[in-house]
TrEMBL record:
<comment type="pathway">
    <text>Protein modification; protein glycosylation.</text>
</comment>
<dbReference type="GO" id="GO:0005789">
    <property type="term" value="C:endoplasmic reticulum membrane"/>
</dbReference>
<feature type="transmembrane region" description="Helical">
    <location>
        <begin position="356"/>
        <end position="375"/>
    </location>
</feature>
<feature type="transmembrane region" description="Helical">
    <location>
        <begin position="278"/>
        <end position="297"/>
    </location>
</feature>
<keyword id="KW-0460">Magnesium</keyword>
<feature type="transmembrane region" description="Helical">
    <location>
        <begin position="53"/>
        <end position="73"/>
    </location>
</feature>
<dbReference type="InterPro" id="IPR000715">
    <property type="entry name" value="Glycosyl_transferase_4"/>
</dbReference>
<dbReference type="InterPro" id="IPR033895">
    <property type="entry name" value="GPT"/>
</dbReference>
<feature type="transmembrane region" description="Helical">
    <location>
        <begin position="97"/>
        <end position="116"/>
    </location>
</feature>
<keyword id="KW-0479">Metal-binding</keyword>
<feature type="transmembrane region" description="Helical">
    <location>
        <begin position="169"/>
        <end position="189"/>
    </location>
</feature>
<keyword id="KW-0812">Transmembrane</keyword>
<comment type="similarity">
    <text>Belongs to the glycosyltransferase 4 family.</text>
</comment>
<feature type="transmembrane region" description="Helical">
    <location>
        <begin position="128"/>
        <end position="146"/>
    </location>
</feature>
<keyword id="KW-0472">Membrane</keyword>
<feature type="transmembrane region" description="Helical">
    <location>
        <begin position="6"/>
        <end position="24"/>
    </location>
</feature>
<protein>
    <recommendedName>
        <fullName>UDP-N-acetylglucosamine--dolichyl-phosphate N-acetylglucosaminephosphotransferase</fullName>
        <ecNumber>2.7.8.15</ecNumber>
    </recommendedName>
</protein>
């Protein structure tokens, strides 16, 4: 019955894809009339583009999942016959049912909070707090159903900690931080046509490939089935959105999609029991976060927008810059820029009046530092190529290399 359930999930995902394709163009003008639009700053005409369309595909995803809810429980309950009770149907899987409902609740909360961010332009401290709140129902269900806080230790530290270590409440802190990271990591690697949806598509496809491999191997079957049930509709609606968001964008996805995508990934990673592997699929986002730390934590001045600069004469993107005086930086700020400058990871121009001009610390700007001025479409393709390459690296780490660190 598992294959039938997945097949029906796939059919619902296909329906969600075509529904999203029809809904998006019909709501574009409505969003503009509601003043939910932005100007595409990387185009000559800078025309108005409807924004926050991520809320539409999020709603289509939820509708698809609501339609799917009865499928696995009806089919699998009918198929599961309890021999001990004389062939009567097995007990209804309440735990799995609650997991799915709470997963959708957390995702729904993040869609709502993401849309609120787009409309109200929330501060960064709220962006860190909101995913934490939305994850609480998820952590509560994990506590009730599993409450497993024991981690298997790598071989090289077992002499100190033993084979496993129970870290207690710290495991819940880790899962909460994972949700915060996933929702914001996509959000800070964004700003050019198709990038937010493009990276999410690659991460979702990577997760599905991983789920398929693990199901074939018979590992954590229930967890990976749960992941597939969420990832197929997510992939479908994201593909529909990407059609309108890729270069040249007809719609902008807004923070809503970033939160929706990030929370969906966090949900399957936590309840599917493969959070460490999920982090591997976020390697570009981790690199971008580490590269951005000096500005995100205000060690180096950070402008409100760090998008590349657009040159209308050449139709190319150039690095965007920030200016400061080196003597205004604290010790950590000076250390960070010195390390980045030494390894040629940033541009550095010292002016006669003591000012320093350097690029903004984002992966998008770093691509422009390395390759020079590039067309917007090419930058997106480069970054999506990096995402694919990092997914390949993740699979190499997860399978051939993992055996050197863990038993299996």
């Amino acid at each position: 019955m598992t294959y039938i359930t997945v097949a029906l999930n796939g059919l619902i995902a296909v329906g969600a894809y075509f529904m999203a394709l029809r809904v998006i163009p019909r709501f574009k003008d409505m969003f503009i009339k509601a003043n939910l639009f932005g100007k595409d700053l990387c185009k000559r005409d800078k025309k108005e583009i409807p924004e926050s369309l991520g809320v539409l595909v999020g709603c289509v995803f939820l509708v698809a999942m609501f339609l799917f809810i009865p499928v696995p429980f009806t089919l699998e309950e009918a198929a599961a016959m309890d021999v001990e009770t004389g062939g009567k149907p097995a007990t209804f899987p309440h735990e799995e049912f609650v997991e799915l409902i709470v997963a959708l609740l957390s995702i729904c909360c993040m869609i709502l909070l993401g849309f609120a961010d787009d409309v109200l332009d929330l501060r960064w401290r709220h962006k860190l707090l909101l995913p934490t709140i939305a994850t609480l129902p998820l952590l509560m269900v994990y506590y009730v159903n599993y409450n497993s806080t024991t981690i298997i230790m790598p071989k090289f530290v077992r002499g100190l900690f033993g084979y496993s270590l129970d870290i207690g409440v710290l495991y819940y802190v880790y899962m909460g931080m994972l949700a915060v990271f996933c929702t914001n990591a996509i959000n800070i690697l964004a700003g050019i046509n198709g990038l937010e949806v493009g990276q999410s598509l690659i991460v979702a496809a990577s997760i599905l490939i991983f789920n398929a491999i693990e199901l074939c191997l018979g590992h954590q079957v229930d967890g990976h089935k749960f992941s597939v049930y969420l990832m197929l509709p997510f992939l479908a609606v994201s593909l529909a959105l990407w059609k309108y968001n890729k270069y040249p964008s007809q719609v902008f996805v807004g923070d809503t999609f970033c939160y929706f995508a990030g929370m969906t990934f966090a949900v399957v990673g936590i309840l599917g029991h493969f959070s460490k592997t999920l982090i591997l699929f976020f390697l570009p986002q981790i690199i971008n976060f580490l590269y951005s730390i000096p500005q995100l934590f205000k060690f180096v001045p950070c402008p409100r927008h760090r998008l590349p600069k657009y040159d209308p004469q050449t139709d190319l993107l150039h690095i965007s810059t920030t200016e400061f005086r080196k003597d205004e930086l604290n010790i950590l700020g000076k250390l960070m820029v010195t390390v980045l400058k030494t390894f040629k990871l940033i541009t550095w121009q010292e002016m006669p009046d003591g000012r320093v001009i350097t690029n903004n610390f984002t992966l998008i700007n770093f691509v422009l530092v390395v390759f020079g001025p590039v067309h917007e479409r090419v930058v997106t393709q480069m970054l999506m190529g990096v995402q694919v390459l990092c997914s390949i690296v993740a699979f190499v780490i997860r399978y051939p290399l993992a055996s050197y660190v863990y038993d299996t």
